[in-house]
Amino acid sequence: MARPSPATPPDLRDGRIVASHGRQVTVEGESGERHACRLHGRKLEAVCGDAVRWGYAAPGDDQGTVYEVLPRRTLLQRLDGLGRTEPVVANLTQLVAVVAPQPVPDWFVVDRYLAGAEWSGLAALVTVNKAELDGASALDDELANYAALGYPAVRCSTRAQPGTASLATHLAGGTSVLVGQSGTGKSSLLNALVPEARAVTQEISAATEEGRHTTTTSALHRLSSGGSLIDSPGVRDYAPALPTVREIGTGFREIHAAAAGCRFQDCLHDTEPGCAVRAAVGDGAIRPRRFESYRRLVALAKDFAARFPERASPRGTRRGR
Description:
By secondary structure, the chain is of the alpha/beta class. It has helices spanning 107-120, 140-148, 165-171, 186-193, 197-207, 233-236, 253-258, 276-283, 288-307; strands spanning 13-21, 24-29, 34-39, 51-55, 64-69, 75-79, 85-90, 94-99, 123-128, 153-155, 175-180, 218-222, 228-231.
């Protein structure tokens, strides 16, 4: 983590980045005031949600400078096209996987979102948007399975009943992001939960004098029900960074739990004898589709390990299980 340079002013203040726009950021102070800042030096990297130390380089400056990024409690990362990991948002507490009757959900993608939450140490829930549409009941079976695993299932709509009140309740008190396939209505949910979100983003871009790049702005929005919601382009097309092959199973609660009964501690649940996970799949205790999701991610992790041998495990902090 970056440390203050010798040129750091003596009167640094604590704050949190609530908007990130390249090297330009908006920092919220302890009393809620917001300040336009820039990152100090080329090596300092920060993302929306980061806790920072900042100050004014000289009296009378109209823009502050962020000198230090404090240790992150959690970090959401994604894969780029070269197999590298890059930070997206920091200090989240919850990931919300959004599905809808249309487009038809790709449950393997949802499984990867939820696995990404596990690897990042985040709570997670599944939200069915457009719940008023025909076909919503067809999702009930998968939702019930997620609920049995401890992932709450919330139904909502921005156009009809049941509205978004239930989702807002689940967001209260934490810092969340919405992820999901294109067309599931993530932007509509954001606008319903935070009506001023679009205006805030435009204001932030104008403050950085880079309004033409509005869509690259990541912003943290306060919710009237409590808590906050981060909107980021890096989250909208989120593909969770993969840990090492042997850690893939920790992203699947039921597989991770069953693995304790495997004969070999390093069992990948492939062809090893005495595999408790494959036995649980055969007995119906673990859904075959969830096991297939696990196997697909193992194959992907193996492929990345072969193509990018220098790639390190992306995980920082995560909850113990």
